[in-house]
TrEMBL record:
Keywords: Membrane, Transmembrane, Transmembrane helix. Residues 341-355 have a biased composition (Pro residues). The chain crosses the membrane at residues 7-28, 40-60, 67-85, 91-108, 115-134, 140-159, 166-191, 203-223, 244-274, 286-309, 316-338, 371-404. GO terms for molecular function: benzoate transmembrane transporter activity. GO terms for cellular component: plasma membrane. It comes from the Bacteria. It comes from Micromonospora rifamycinica. InterPro entries: Benzoate_Transporter. This is Benzoate membrane transport protein. It holds the Pfam family BenE. The lineage of its organism: Bacteria, Bacillati, Actinomycetota, Actinomycetes, Micromonosporales. Residues 341-365 are annotated as: Disordered.
Length: 411
């Protein structure tokens, strides 16, 4: 009995931490691209159930702790992108295309290699630019609603020091208490708390496909699937990446019509199910990921109540909780963007290049400048031709690398 109780408890913790720490990001992202309250609740329910089904299937099929989650960086991208041409139906069409691209990455290894070929500093800088607006929300909340925001931030700071994994859930509890003490909840009924499924017929517009679907796919692959694979490998597993991509891509495709933006390998909570705390025996840790999958699907049934909580609070307060949840991801993205490794050439050389000179160990100027340009353009939130800043930031960083690529000596 004890042999199973430890991984089951680890799975419950994984599900609770994963849901509570970032569902506010999902709701904020869906609302930003045009979803109504009911459609946002439907989207949260969809990604919860889809991730739970994928985690359960992959864990049972491969006997490996393969944790699945919604794309938190992808939801942050939705916040940064804002309304798209064509409204919510066009956003749903972008979700659908993103799911199909993930399936294609699982079917055709060349597509996965093409994503991996994006210079790591540029990809990380794009992610950092996407996360920055949300990560400034705690500061704005402290100025706009100090009485509500101060307890939330203090709670996060204390738990971040002594029990880091519970810091964001505890901050969410503090925000819930603050909202309950300052609102009456008049006009709310039982119907507002029930799970809701709100289907939408997708439409396809070029700005939404280029400015939302492609960046969502790239962010999900680079910030979730690749790190999630690395976490599993770090604990000695050989994760079946192609089957995982096909399963999560199919789930994302099927869930797009009801508002699900993307599901993928978990990166933030993956270690909770794959590490030794889940079970001393690595062959028993899959029980934790399967339990987490079932738990996440059940927690998704509370999407209506979660959406009601968001509606009762000042928007900046919920964004503040989301920003606290993403501070670690922002730090990691900035660190990767300014890494010391020199970037690969954006265009392969026509002939073999001479051996590079010994590195001095300092940051490569091309990599650093391209990353900074990507970060600035993405974080600016500019929208050109209906396409959001994430796409233009990625393009600007790539062009910087191209423009300042060292000339090769003539033979």
């Amino acid at each position: 009995m004890g042999d199973r109780l430890q991984p089951v408890l680890a799975g419950v913790v994984t599900a609770v931490v994963g849901f509570a720490s970032s569902f506010t990001v999902v709701l904020a992202g869906l609302r930003a691209v045009g979803a109504s309250e009911a459609q946002a609740a439907s989207g949260l329910l969809t990604v919860s159930v889809a991730a739970g089904i994928c985690a359960t299937w992959l864990g049972l099929r491969h006997r490996m702790p393969i944790s699945i989650a919604w794309s938190t960086p992808g939801a942050a991208l939705l916040v940064a992108t804002g309304p798209v041409a064509g409204g919510w139906p066009a956003a749903v069409g972008a979700f659908l295309l993103c799911g199909l691209l993930i399936v294609a990455a699982g079917l055709f290894p060349a597509l996965g290699r093409a994503v991996a070929a994006i210079p790591a500093p540029v990809a990380a800088a794009m992610l950092a630019g996407v996360l920055l607006p949300l990560c400034t929300a705690p500061v704005r909340a402290l100025v706009e609603v100090p009485v509500l925001a101060a307890p939330v931030i203090v709670t996060w700071l204390v738990l971040h020091r002594f029990a880091r994994r519970w810091a964001v859930p505890a901050a969410l509890v503090a925000a819930t208490v603050a909202i309950a003490l300052t609102t009456s909840g008049v006009g709310l009924g039982v119907a507002d708390l029930r799970p809701v499924v709100s289907p939408t017929v997708p439409t396809f517009t070029l700005p939404a496909l280029v400015g939302l679907a492609v960046p969502l796919f790239l962010v999900t692959m680079a910030a979730q699937n690749v790190p999630g694979t690395a976490v599993l490998r770090g604990y000695g597993y050989r994760p079946p990446l192609a089957p995982a991509l096909r399963a999560t891509g199919l789930a994302s495709t099927l869930g797009a019509a009801t508002g699900g933006h993307a599901v993928n390998l978990a990166a933030i909570t993956a270690a909770l199910a794959a590490g030794p705390d889940a079970h001393p025996d690595p062959d028993r840790r899959w029980i934790a990921s399967v339990t987490a999958g079932v738990g996440l699907a059940l927690l998704g049934l509370g999407a209506g109540a979660a959406t009601t909580l968001v509606l009762l609070s000042p928007p900046v307060l919920i964004e503040a909780v989301a920003g606290l949840a993403l501070l670690g991801a922002l730090a990691g993205a900035l660190s990767s963007a300014l890494s010391t490794a020199p970037p690969p050439d954006p265009v392969p050389p026509a002939a073999p290049a001479p051996a590079p000179a010994a590195s001095s160990g300092g940051p490569d100027p091309r990599s650093r400048e391209a990353a900074v340009v990507t970060f600035v353009v993405t974080a600016s939130g500019v929208s050109l031709l209906g396409v959001g800043g994430a796409f233009w930031g990625l393009l600007a960083g790539w062009l910087m690398l191209l423009l300042f690529r060292p000339r090769r000596p003539a033979p």
